[in-house]
Q: What sequence folds into this?
DNA sequence: TTGTCCATGTAACCAGTTACATGATTAC
DNA sequence: GTAATCATGTAACTGGTTACATGGACAA
């Protein structure tokens, strides 16, 4: 897995953002993505600024509020991002505690397992609803004549999320039948 | 995400293993799981031994080879594992570099993206074949009369893997159509 | 002779989480 | 008066990756 560096550049390639904005976009649910903490975002932005991948576009100061530092991507930052995007990717392992718990289901009673599956199923149902709503919101705003519309890329990724949540629900149903 | 501690106990609950065996089982592909390095396994086993979750069952010494330390789970280790398995789980984020690259697809040419998708698709196809073979191998060995057969739990998890790889392939095909 | 397998382990480093700190403002 | 939001940042800790070290056996 690569550093969060590319995740930051990915968002900045679309629009100028502050560290705080980046945190919101990542920890909110624009796609089934990363989480980041402030301790990663702010130092990384400073580093990238020093390396010229990003530059301070301006500071928004609303008197009573802390100053907001808006960063924009530089041409060289964009190059680095494009370069990375073109590098071949590898398969990532799924790391999900619930899979490990399911692997241990033989240790517990079927009723207990059933309760566990139902609990996780509910949470994934909620995510599915969020992703579906997001797709419904974005789809009419895509410009189909533009092969470089970022929204189309966003939808592809959220679509992955929808498919993933559906798979999770199907799998849960399958477990419930066999338990 | 929880510590590898539970991953180690999960494997030891089924059979006594050495640190090396654990590494092989995890980094090989019994399920779509964790990877671990020796630097995590050996110290963690020592810690767990000190806490009485695990104990040294014996040492296998084949003259010319390094001594192999076999650990087995203790009743208290089993308790801890069962307790953890019964704790409610949360939804885990999918963290896959390729999703981030797909999110950047608007930055590159459709042809370049097509090549990227085809490359990752191939790798996921291979994984699917592995998982399918694993299921075919395990299924006839399950004891259906035993509701606590660990093999059934293993199959459930590998089945998740199969479904996941199918989803990935479908999604790739969908991308290839729209690019 | 170069490399891989066996089996243990250590060292150095990078990534990620949780918690804390500031300080004004708004909402309950 | 308590908590949340905005926006920056630091500190301490845990988790994870990569590389290295030993040393005999065996295969290309």
A:
């Amino acid at each position: 897995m690569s550093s969060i560096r590319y995740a930051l550049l990915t968002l900045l390639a679309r629009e100028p953002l502050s560290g705080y904005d980046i945190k919101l976009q990542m920890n909110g649910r624009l796609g089934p993505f990363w989480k980041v903490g402030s301790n990663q975002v702010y130092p990384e932005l400073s580093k990238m600024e020093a390396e010229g991948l990003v530059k301070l576009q301006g500071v928004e100061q609303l008197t009573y509020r802390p100053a907001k530092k808006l960063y924009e991507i530089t041409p060289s930052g964009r190059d680095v991002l494009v370069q990375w995007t073109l590098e071949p990717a590898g398969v990532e392992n799924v790391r999900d505690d619930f899979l490990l718990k399911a692997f241990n289901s033989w240790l517990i009673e079927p009723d207990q397992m059933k309760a566990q599956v139902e609990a996780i199923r509910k949470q994934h149902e909620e995510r599915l609803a969020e992703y579906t709503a997001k797709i419904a919101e974005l789809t009419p705003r895509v410009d189909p004549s533009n092969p470089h519309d970022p929204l189309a890329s966003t939808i592809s990724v959220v679509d992955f999320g929808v498919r993933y949540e559906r798979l999770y629900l199907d799998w849960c149903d399958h477990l419930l039948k066999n338990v």
Notes: The first strand of chain A starts at residue 54 and ends at 60. The first helix of chain A runs from residue 4 to 12.
